[in-house]
Amino acid sequence: MCKYPQPTNPKQVVTVCAYCHKQKGRRGDWQNNRAPHAQKQTHGVCPKCYAVARARLLLELAEMKRHRMSTFSTI
Ligand SMILES: [Zn+2]
Questions:
Q1: 46-73 confidence digits (pLDDT tens)
Q2: Which end of the chain is more exposed for a tag (fewer CB within 10 A), N or C?
Q3: Which element (helix H / strand E) includes 16?
Q4: Cβ pair 23, 16 in contact under 8 A
Q5: The dihedral of CA 23, 26, 44, 56: what is its sign?
Q6: Near ion ligand 1, which residues have CB within 5 Å?
Q7: d(CA 7, ligand 1 centre) in Å
């Protein structure tokens, strides 16, 4: 018997969206059904949540740039 943890078969791992908890299907589709607790899970981001997170990040970056520019303009 091996005393080291064995690598997990990727087919046994379910990808769950970190934001909306949708489950990624084998064909790359994201569904609302929750993964059974016994199944190993990893986290990803579904396309819908990715678009929202990306838009928020871009807005935040624009705000930071604007703030930095206004800080520099007073020097
Ligand atoms: Zn999502």
A1: 999 999 999 999 999 999 999 887 766 5
A2: N
A3: strand 13-17
A4: yes
A5: negative
A6: 17, 19-20, 46, 49
A7: 27
